[in-house]
Model the fold of this input.
Amino acid sequence: MVYGESALRPPDPTRRVTASQPFGDLDAALYAGPRPDPAQLVLATTTALPVEGARAEQAVSIGADRWLLVVSARRPLIGWLADRQPWLLLAAGLLVAVLVAALVESLLRRRAYALALVDERTADLERSLRELDATQERLVAQERLAAIGELAAAVGHELRNPLGVLGNVVYLLRSRLGGGDPWAAEKLRTAERELAAATLIVADLLEFARPRPPVAAPHHLPGLVDEVLSVAPPPDSVRVETGWPAELAPVAVDRDQLRQVLLNLVTNAYEAMPAGGVVTLNAERQPAAVRLTVADTGAGMDDETRRRLFEPFYTTKTKGIGLGLAVARRIVEAHGGALTAESRPGAGAAFTLTLPSSPPVEEPDR
Done:
């Protein structure tokens, strides 16, 4: 072939080799020498000589001579797809990574939603269980209190008459003995004090068992307090101090019920100071209300006692049934008022009674 192209038929510069011919995809040049010398060109498939670009040179031995073959591809010898295969793989990898990330994110979101839903349902279930337990405890407590109330009503009714008789006997004894015997006078005071305490317990039992709505009328607090202190005088080691503002408005209360409340507060203050102390009763005016504070200088209360102070039948005293403060709060709330307590260990206790004041009574025109 080389001989035919070079010797028998010299190369025609205007003729190009087609793709179906040998070297159709290559630009090739064959030199009859070791260097690409144009004078030694034997065969060329292109007129663009010398062959440039990415080329390959190969020395060929023909007999004793050394010929040079220079070859350069006209276009990539591999296809478009193979040429771009690394970029396609990279793009495919990125696409797969994005899809996997989206799938993982979706699964994580669904998992977080499912966990949140489980937590919400668990919280609802726990709340329902707590409400169910609280409701059951309230029902049990109500049934127990109802049974105790029936018993308390019966006991209170049966004790009221004997206590009345004993009170009359003590009164007659005091009238008969007079004040000439100090020992007898002291014993009579003790009997009167214990009778007052027993009468108050019976009143608490009856009020707890069968509460009645208050019959409110205007009353002045100083007069009610003086009456309570005369019925329940302080022990010898306790001093009572009172403070009333000028022109204190009357309160709209049921006299007997408020008297029972004040008796409970005052006797509790006495019992909180077995070694003696001071009980202070102060009142102050407020818009449409009067606030009365009964404070003592006793040992005070801890947090547990203060929290359960108004629960029925809860008491820390050796004597008593734990109904006084529960009944007192219920009476005050029935009057549209409020009864609160403040105390800390070693600093005494203060009970604040807030009652609506009575509207002024207009005198008729003359």
